[in-house]
Amino acid sequence: MLEDILKQVQSGSLSIEEAKGKLATYENLGFAKVDHHRKKRQGFPEVIYGEGKTKEQILSIIKAIRSKGNNVLVTRITEDKASHILKEYPEFTYNEIAQILFWKDRKENAKTEIYIAIVCAGTSDLKVAEEAAITAEALGANVRRFYDVGVAGIHRLFDSIEEIQNATVSVVVAGMEGALPSVVGGLVNHPVLAVPTSVGYGANFNGLSALLTMLNSCASGISVVNIDNGFGAAYNAVLIHQLAQKGES
């Protein structure tokens, strides 16, 4: 690409200013600098964090990302903001539970049967679990969901454990005391990404007790992300998943 641009400048078919635009790694919108180079560096386009941004700002960033033909993923976006975006981009998909708005090229759908397991302790944790699941799917991974399998009824987990064991990586979401990742970690031979949620009564301290439980897990192979950070866990899970796919090929 660089050589083509230089040749066009040399031949006079492309001005220096036009060449600078094509070679720019980011686009300055004034309120945001959209990182167009991120997909080349990390494999995925820039993800938009919707919380704290206006619907007009989000729309402007989306337009910049789409202008380069990239997929779009917006996390923590309310239904009101998403509705504003959908008027201009009706082909986008909004998941109300996960509060995620996304669009991806269908040609990039997963072409393999291997999958990421999203394991969720209770129904109250679904928002975070779905944020993880939708993020992983939007980034091109196959996902299988195993919901409401917390330690209060551990037999529910055992009914699905073989399928969870066959995943490349598990994202395990739990609130309250946050014990589920330790249980799963002791039963699988792949990485486990633990996600504490803010679900729980007073002494849960808005997820702090679950976070500390997961950080202190005696099960090997567990890594812990921040409280309610389903996105962060899914992003790392997809990176691991891709490495597993390379190993399969």
Description:
The protein is α/β, with parallel strands linked by helices and 249 residues long. Helix content is 40%, strand content 17%. It is built from 11 helices and 11 strands. The protein has helices at 2-11, 16-23, 38-42, 55-66, 79-88, 126-138, 155-158, 161-165, 180-185, 208-215, 230-248; strands spanning 26-28, 33-35, 48-49, 72-75, 93-95, 100-103, 116-120, 143-146, 169-174, 192-196, 222-224. A 5-stranded parallel beta sheet has the order 8-7-9-10-11. A 4-stranded mixed beta sheet has the order 3-4-6-5, with helices on both faces. Strands 1-2 form a two-stranded antiparallel sheet. Strand 1 and strand 2 (33-35) form a beta hairpin. Helix 1 runs antiparallel to helix 2, helix 4 (55-66) crosses helix 5 (79-88) and helix 6 (126-138) packs across helix 11. The longest helix has 19 residues, at 230-248. It is elongated. The two termini are 28 Å apart. The mean pLDDT is 88.
